[in-house]
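From: lab user (bench 3)
To: helpdesk
Subject: output format question, protein + 2,6-di-O-phosphono-beta-D-fructofuranose

Hello, I'm new to running complex predictions and I'm not sure whether the block I got back is the full result or only part of it. Here's what I submitted:
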Amino acid sequence: MSEQLAPTDDDIDRIVDDVFETVADATPELRRSIRGRRGETDDENPSGDRQLEADQQFDRLLVDRLGRLDGVGTYASEERDDPVDCGEGVSLTVDPLDGSSNLKSNNLVGTIVGVYDGELPASGRNLIGAGYVVYGPTTTMVQARGDAAVEYEVVDGERRPLRPVDLPDDPTVFGFGGGDDEWVSAFERYAQEIRSELKLRYGGALVGDVNQVLRYGGVFAYPTLESREEGKLRLQFEANPMAYILRAAGGAATDGDRSILDVSAEELHQRTPLYVGNKELLRRLPDEL
Ligand code: FDP
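Helpdesk reply: Thanks, we reran it on our side. This is the complete output you should expect:
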């Protein structure tokens, strides 16, 4: 971005698209780098999770590629204590390898990226783009900007459009994390109702669990827990980008009290309960959460 002139809408469109083009371009190398790196290191990330070798490698590859982009000012990662200063421009939040505890069993993992206009930590209302990659049987990417979300298949690092993402009106799936022995009783009652209406599909990686809600309609939650009121997921890196994408696709996201996009951002690694999906399913969440 120019230092003298405010960026135009076209500049912003280009920067957001460059970010996702760069992430897509990196996916073959990222996928390859999992091989031989499924083991744990002795290090913990700022949230206290044990880091795998692949967590660290994904972070290194992404900071190297995204940090060099013209128009990117800050790279912040779930795997780093502090943001990296890259120059002038937008702020990126990156969960390099979401769902990394799935690597042990060779289940789904992904990458989540938020593009914020402003310094971090920032409100979700400052997002100007968000997207995620799913390293599934095939590599796909969902990218949202403003009111539009698009799903791509990523072939040899190139995005090929599959469809505009529009949440189905008739929901069919749900997935709730945290374990029912840890849920508060109000959520337990909600879960009981939802269980009798929808089909349980829980994969243990936010990208996969939200991705199937976007495909089939439904609700995903990582709720407030008895032992941890703030839940597990990170506001800047996970909840805000997913909330932005869900909104663009016609759904919503809440922390139980307010839209995730209105949660006040106090710390880079702060956690939040997260409930996302079809609006009518979220409207039924109990007040006492
Ligand atoms: P992971 O710890 O494997 O990286 O926030 C991280 C996350 O996975 C999410 O992707 C996922 O939704 C959640 O944690 C899974 O938590 P549980 O292991 O408690 O199910």
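A quick orientation on your result: The first strand starts at residue 40 and ends at 44. Let us know if anything else is unclear.
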